[in-house]
């Protein structure tokens, strides 16, 4: 039905429906917890929602009408961080279809604070595929970054404490992952073997010990991984001066958060003097 064929009442009803839809979508945009900005085809800022002011502190009068470049400059967002927020057909100077990628960067608020934000956006077209606007969105992740940094700090403290705790153990101690790669050791291990953490981390027994000992240790590790639990045996162990000491090697597997065997920890007890006394 053409508009000319519609009654005045029908047109008024349709107009009211359109107004309701417009108010609905505007309310949705205004309530979004994401800063949303629209640019026209000349890159001029024509719309920003309430969250925009909450994030950057500027009034609409200070930001609307600015070019994209001036908008970003005021917030001190580097265009390079946006991964080409706009794209052009050089011939007619219109926007190209597309979506620009998600980027993490910072913006400077009106009161001089830096905020961490995630930026993304795209291009909006009507049902006739006519360009409507380019839309840019920014999500304030400052609080999340703060939480992550806090958790990271606490984990670093725990890691430092655990390493100090391990270093207080008087017997040589080391630990490996499920692939047999060394993950670390304590001070006593370094002093006993003459090897530092840097010498062993990420390496296999074949890269750390003499071949004959490496073969034995590798075989025994394989037995333990095939039957997770505890393993105790007597063996020779390389000493810092190049000699070999008699030790009792206590090893046990450990689990990851899913309850799967993740590696092993080993502790060596030097029994060389006791063996010498027994043989004397």
From TrEMBL:
TM segments?
Answer: none
User: What highest taxon heads this organism's lineage?
Assistant: Bacteria
One Pfam family from the UniProt entry?
PAS
Residue ranges of domain PAS in the record: 158-212
A biological process (GO) annotation for this entry? regulation of DNA-templated transcription
Q: Which InterPro entries match?
A: Biofilm_reg_signaling (IPR052155), PAS (IPR000014), PAS-assoc_C (IPR000700), PAS-like_dom_sf (IPR035965), PAS_fold (IPR013767)
Q: Which residues form the PAC domain?
A: 231-280
Protein's recorded name: PAS domain-containing protein
């Amino acid at each position: 039905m053409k508009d000319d064929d519609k009654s005045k009442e029908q047109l008024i009803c349709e107009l009211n429906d359109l107004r309701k839809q417009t108010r609905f979508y505007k309310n949705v945009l205004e309530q979004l917890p994401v800063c949303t900005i629209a640019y026209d085809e000349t890159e001029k800022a024509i719309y920003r929602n309430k969250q925009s002011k909450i994030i950057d502190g500027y009034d609409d009068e200070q930001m609307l009408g600015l070019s994209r470049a001036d908008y970003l400059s005021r917030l001190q967002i580097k265009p390079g961080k946006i991964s080409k927020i706009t794209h052009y057909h050089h011939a007619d100077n219109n926007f190209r279809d597309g979506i620009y990628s998600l980027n993490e960067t910072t913006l400077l608020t009106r009161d001089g604070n830096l905020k961490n934000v995630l930026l993304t956006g795209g291009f909006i077209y009507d049902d006739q595929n006519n360009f409507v606007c380019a839309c840019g969105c920014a999500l304030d992740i400052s609080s999340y970054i703060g939480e992550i940094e806090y958790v990271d700090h606490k984990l670093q403290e725990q890691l430092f404490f655990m390493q100090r705790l391990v270093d207080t153990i008087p017997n040589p101690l080391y630990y490996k992952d499920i692939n047999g790669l060394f993950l670390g050791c304590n001070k006593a291990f370094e002093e006993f073997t003459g090897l530092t953490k840097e010498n062993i981390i990420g390496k296999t027994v074949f890269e750390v010990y003499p071949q004959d000992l490496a073969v034995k240790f590798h075989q025994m590790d394989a037995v333990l991984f095939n039957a997770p639990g505890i393993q105790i045996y007597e063996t020779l162990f390389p000493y810092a001066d190049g000699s070999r000491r008699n030790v009792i090697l206590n090893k046990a597997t450990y689990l990851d958060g899913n309850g799967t065997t993740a590696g092993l920890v080993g502790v060596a007890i030097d029994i060389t003097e006791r063996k010498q006394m027994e043989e004397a």
